[in-house]
Design brief:
By secondary structure, this protein is of the alpha/beta class. The protein has six helices and ten strands; from the N terminus they run ββαβαβαβαβαββαββ. Helix 1 packs parallel to helix 6. Bound molecules: 5-O-phosphono-beta-D-ribofuranosylamine.
């Protein structure tokens, strides 16, 4: 039986790097909460896989350092994985948060941040992994949808679950309305959970994760 892995809080505030690809509304929610004393988090950098990630501006506006590592700037995916790992590691994060980062990281990245890389997904895993969670949920006809925060492993949306939050699916929903309802709940969950991790640390015991 593998031993539980314990991650202690950083008394100076949890150092967090956030990775994004898009508009960065989850990032904005984290940045908005960064100041209050109780939050216990410092966002030390924001990284993206593309220059067009709108969320980079949220980071610049907040005075947070940004970096971009594009796969196309590297000879192959392994080289990109190495570059992303080294650039991220240079900020000495206690936690790396994928908030709409649309790339699967490679083995070097996972080995460098074991148990310290989390992702928020806009579906109730293990249902509807992948890129189209809300559309897949709607097409299936489920009545409850939501978001899952989990510790990333080598699979696609398969890692141990930190937290889940649910929202109703309404009869008149479109992909857009459901996606937006999920995002509101998802942001609240992300901020709450990262704050819990910062203040209490976390323990991973097989598939079970506890934030206290
Ligand atoms: C989130 O809903 C996340 O679950 C999905 O992409 C969205 C990112 O949104 N993978 P934003 O860039 O934080 O606004």
């Amino acid at each position: 039986m593998p031993q539980p892995q314990r991650f202690e809080p950083n008394p100076d505030g949890l150092r967090v790097v956030v990775l994004i690809s898009g508009g960065g509304s989850n990032l904005a929610a984290l940045l908005a909460k960064e100041q209050p004393e109780q939050f216990g988090v410092q966002i030390v950098a924001v990284g993206a896989d593309r220059h067009s990630a709108g969320g980079l501006q949220h980071a610049r506006d907040a005075g947070v350092p940004v970096f971009v590592e594009r796969i196309s700037d590297h000879p192959d995916r392994a080289a990109w994985d190495r570059a992303l790992t080294e650039t991220t590691a240079a900020f000495r994060p206690d936690l790396v948060v994928s908030a709409g980062f649309l790339k699967l990281v490679g083995p070097l990245f996972l080995a460098r941040f074991p148990g310290r890389y989390i992702n928020t997904h806009n579906a109730l895993l293990p249902a509807f992994p992948g890129m189209h969670g809300p559309a897949d949920a709607l097409a299936y006809g489920v009545k409850i949808a939501g978001a899952t925060l989990f510790v990333v492993d080598a699979g696609v949306d398969t890692g141990p679950i930190l937290a889940q939050t649910s929202v109703p699916v309404l009869d008149e929903d479109t992909e857009e309305t459901l996606t937006e309802r999920i995002k509101v709940a998802e942001r609240t969950q992300l901020v709450e959970q990262v704050s819990l991790m910062a203040r209490h640390g976390w323990t991973i015991n097989g598939r079970r994760v506890v934030t206290k």
